[in-house]
Amino acid sequence: MKLAIANRMRYSSRIARNQQGIATILIILLTGLTMTAVVLGLSSFMRATQEQGLALQSQSQSQIKAWTGAEVVRRYLDMLLQNEKQNKEPNLSILSTTLQSGDALPIDGIAGLFAQVVSIDTGAHEYVIDVTSESAKNTRAQSSSTLRLVYRIGEEITNDGQSDGLRGVLDFRRNLDLRGGIEVKVPPGQTYDIWVDGDLTTGGNSIRGVNAIRATGSVSIGSGSTFESLYANGDIEVTGGVTVSKSIMAMGNICVNGGVSGSGEIQANGVVISSSGQKLGAISSRGDDLDHPFTKLCTVGSWGSLAVDAYANVFGVDLRGGGSGASSVKTMKSMRVLSGAVDNLQVQDDLVVANWNENLHGNVGKVLRIKDTNRYNAKLPQQVQAQANDLDASFDPSATRTSNVPVQVTKLQPLQDAGLSGLYFSAYWPVVPETAEAVQSKSNYPYQSVANYVFEVNPDGYRTVTIQAVSVNGIAVSGTYFLGSYPGTVQNPYAKVFDYLCTQLVAGTSASDPSCAGPVTDSIGTLCRGYSPQNPCITYKNGQWTIQGNTLAAGIHWFDGDLNVSSGTFYGTLIATGNIVTSGSTKVYAPNYAGYDGYSMKDGQKKQYAPAGMCQNLPIEGWIPTNLCNLTQHELIHNFAFGVGNFALLAGSCQALAANGSCSQYHGGDIQLQASNTIYGRVLAGNSLSTGGGTVVHGQIGALGGGETQKNGLSGSTTLDLRDIPSSYTPSTNTNTSSTNTFIQVRWSRYL
């Protein structure tokens, strides 16, 4: 019995040992299978990743090539337009005689690039064209992209050589008040003017570097400044230590006082009054046009009313100051002089002298009336040619001559204003509309359509950014995104980051503090850089956008509402439909100033003009505005969309048009440059412009007066520096020509 039990135990032990061996083998087999599965999975994952990367790279190449094709097509259309214009008058529909729907456009020299005309709208002057690119054909990396573009032919009216119609380095369409220090720094041999549609006043300041002031109203200069010329449709008043070297011309009256130096020509349709005590240049006056509709400067305050002669007519020239004189005087009325010298005078009526001296020479048409009878001189006939009854110390009105000396003074013609009925800036419409009907047939938002970043608030109150014509790290990005944040964690609540672009928000998140849904990888990132990831750089409150921090992505930024450029350095054009104000320390580089990479050729050498560029050496790495960049030729497209790349700041919008094409309802358009600003580009306010603090603008500044504000003002220290500028940038022109040019631009695009 015991032996049987022992045998059974030995048998069971042997079976257990055999089972343990099988289990070990099974474990080894399972482990091997697991490792095989892991290896195969990793291999598959790596293969998929490689395929994805290859597809991504190939797609990126085809998209970039498509945009290259878009620029090739634009230049081809421009070439056709210019060729046809050689024998024809400019015509917005001129290309329709050359192109037809369905036509294939020749693109030679670039393999895998094709273009075809889809449709033509001759009424809107728009051409829909598909550009298709192929990359790595007949390989695993083969890809293609089709870009549908709308090209528009338009006209830009150039006045004084500029597409925006601005006429001088400072151009204001309403009254302008200059205070503080104003300086224009220009290259040698160049001159720049101030144009004002309205009155210009100065006081307690210094103006340097300005060649001429031209105003369609009246001009009052009361500062220690130097000019070449002053022009006005109304009166001109000059006081203080002002020097005018060439000419003072007024359709109204001219009055000078203090230590004014005016050695050039002084001409008025009205009268010329001097209490200066200085010898002036060549004076001429007609003595009429006294009741002009502009601000009266020479008949108010200390000037009093205009003095009249024995015939109750105003004196054409009234030299009231002791020692006031002129190199010559020509007047179609009478002249009065206290004690000054005139080398050559031609007076059609009377000459009234308070204190006679031997330094008056010329001709008098009627009576020489000398108040001081004790100062008669035997040399008088040789000095002032006269005949019988010429001398009259008693101011007898009957002591006249029957034949007058004929004196003619050319009548000055008015300076033309800018034509407010046809010229305005609008973030919605081009600066100069062709006609009201043409404007109304366009898209309502051409500047919005060419912007790379369109900032709006949707009906629910959430901030949105529409991105167009932008590539991020080589991938074309388009669409509308929310501006949101990613919340911090329980362990680190301060890890919250702002201003990410995301397609979805957390359910129930508020418009004042929206949160992006999903992990950070769902977002394409942020187009701005604040002082830190935890500091917002784009905010919105009560109709005003605020940008602050380090910088934004380069491009054209369009804001629906007001804009506060609080602080930072920005590259591109900032456009607001409302008003723009700057605060803090701000720098803005216009696209054409920043250039392709921040550099430009100067005297045969490559010189840096900006810390960053628009297409390379970017402020936000990887974010490229493709409508401004020719990536194949490594060039900036500087003439894009009405030359918007020359501008740093643009403000204002027209809400409604009148039948004649003028703006009947204007919104915003005020620009205030405050605190410390350096603007590398032109500044155009649709309504009014004011400066304060320390402002330096490397370009032209202007205000078009589209709204209700009646006055512009420059105060503090305002410097316009037009020296040493990059070749791609046009800060201002000052020619006196106007012409109409046609252009071709991309107004809309999308991938098919």
UniProtKB/TrEMBL annotation:
Record keywords: Membrane, Transmembrane, Transmembrane helix
Ranges annotated as spanning the membrane: 21-42
Domain of life per record: Bacteria
Name of protein: DUF342 domain-containing protein
